[in-house]
Amino acid sequence: MATIQIAAPDGAGSFDAYLVEPKNKPAGAVVLIQEIFGVNQSMRETAAQVADLGFLVVVPDLFWRIERNVDLTDKTPEEWQKAFALMQAFDAAKGIGDLKATLAAARKLPGCNGRAGTMGYCLGGRLAFMMAEQSDADVNISYYGVGLDGLIGDIGKVTKPLLVHIAGKDEYFPPEGQAKVIEAAKGNKTVATHVYPNANHAFARVGGVHWDGRSAWIANGRSAEALVAALG
């Protein structure tokens, strides 16, 4: 576990990224994309789990342009209020630029085999979907991304595996939006969608209030298989 610095592509400075290394290398790299709560304990625990699968894991601080090193939980109204404020202030286009820079940096890490993908949750799930459309990542995995139906116009640009985990009872992503994404994905063989009918938003958040063990285990197993197939 360490913190590395990554240069922003627009010359605005550099940002922190949390790094966890696997026991054995060379290995593929996974850029883990945060929720609206920053690089918090849940993300750090998730990073450790992904590293245990045999991958280098890099978790960039995407809110650094607003506030550095945000570390919130989903346990208090005050933290939720701050998290939503950060999300509203977040510039997604610049965030995608920072993720592309992180992806490039991950590929050059000592011990990386040159392959790298993304996996994100909530806000990060939306960004992972966007990275599938806009970057050269070898695989992208989206957990309960919000507003994905607004991104399907570019789904034809996805040429590498994209795995989309959808919470059937997601309070932030209504059924009609889910249906549009599922239908659009049918036209692209590199996109796979999975619906977890009894799960709420953030069902795989480690220690989260909406944790659903069955859905999380099934989704994480599918994610592990996708990462191994694409990254080695």
TrEMBL record:
Keywords: Hydrolase. Residues 15-205 form the Dienelactone hydrolase domain. InterPro entries: AB_hydrolase_fold, Dienelactn_hydro, Dienelactone_hydrolase-like. SUPFAM superfamilies: alpha/beta-Hydrolases. Gene3D superfamilies: alpha/beta hydrolase. Pfam families: DLH. One of its GO terms (molecular function) is hydrolase activity. PANTHER family: ALPHA_BETA-HYDROLASES SUPERFAMILY PROTEIN (PTHR46623:SF6), CARBOXYMETHYLENEBUTENOLIDASE-RELATED (PTHR46623). This is Dienelactone hydrolase family protein.
